[in-house]
Design brief:
five-stranded parallel β-sheet, 2 domains, globular, 257 residues, Rossmann fold
């Protein structure tokens, strides 16, 4: 008589839904799921996007005493609780801190990035190495978790194959970041940065391809930078938000939010 199949390991990937933050939580969840399958264990990933009513989300974590009361219904943070909780971003802190207690100790809680709260509040903290955190339950990594795999690169290559195949080799690819709540990167400034990258490569380096976030929401192939190309010098759209380079911000205490 065969043993009944084991239920899958349930993994929640939790963020505020911003693409860059969500990609870290989902990327780590997918990596854990791939590793689990190599050991014959199935995994089910649920993506949770946290939303707060009113201005509750602006409160420091220690003032948000009853966080589930103030979540939007779409957040779906309720039992049954997962086996593995992977969260990223400040918006998830009031929930991650309490997830172990809510689950009766069942859930293993992982917080990505520097939470700026005592790391003992979680089972595992995964910050970037440049944050220089250390401790028994801290696993520093280079960069950030992501969803890029060899299989995904091969799949995406097929989408842009016609634009890429004619470019000479070797190649240098550059991804220029976009807007955030604190800073802005106008198209004109991104073009200037691309040109600054191209200058030394024009001497004896490989061709450069630059790609920027899709401001219009549509995917675009990397654009070759021509030696004769020059960035625009004027902006047709006025900006009121701060532009690059950003002014340094004072780092908050690790024990406060």
């Amino acid at each position: 008589m065969k043993n009944p199949p084991k239920p899958p390991v349930v993994i929640w990937a939790i963020s505020d839904g911003r693409a860059g933050i969500e990609a870290q939580a989902v990327g780590l969840a997918e990596a854990v799921a791939r590793e689990a399958r190599t050991q014959g264990i199935e995994a089910a990933i649920e993506i949770k996007r946290v939303g707060w009513t009113g201005r509750i989300g602006r409160l420091p974590w220690w003032l948000n005493l009853l966080p589930r009361r103030w979540l939007t219904p779409e957040s779906r943070i309720n039992g049954p609780w997962p086996d593995l909780w992977i969260a990223a971003g400040r918006a998830t802190l009031p929930l991650s801190i309490r997830a172990k207690r809510w689950s009766g100790g069942k859930t293993y809680v992982v917080q990505i990035q520097d939470p700026r709260v005592p790391p003992q509040m979680f089972d595992l903290v995964i910050p970037p190495k440049h944050d220089r955190l250390s401790g028994d339950n801290i696993l520093p990594i280079t960069g950030s978790p992501h969803r890029v795999t060899a299989a995904r690169l091969a799949s995406e290559y097929e989408v842009f194959k016609a634009q890429l195949d004619d470019l000479p080799r070797p190649r240098v690819a550059v991804l220029l970041g976009g807007k955030s709540k604190a800073f802005d990167l106008p198209v004109e400034r991104a073009a200037q940065m691309a040109h600054q990258i191209q200058i030394p490569l024009e001497q004896d380096g490989p061709p450069a391809c630059a790609t920027c976030p899709a401001w219009s929401g549509t995917a675009k192939a990397p654009t070759p930078i021509s030696p004769s190309w020059r960035p625009p010098t004027t902006s047709s759209s006025p900006r009121t938000r701060p532009t690059w380079p950003p002014k340094p911000r004072r780092r908050a205490s690790r024990c406060s939010s």
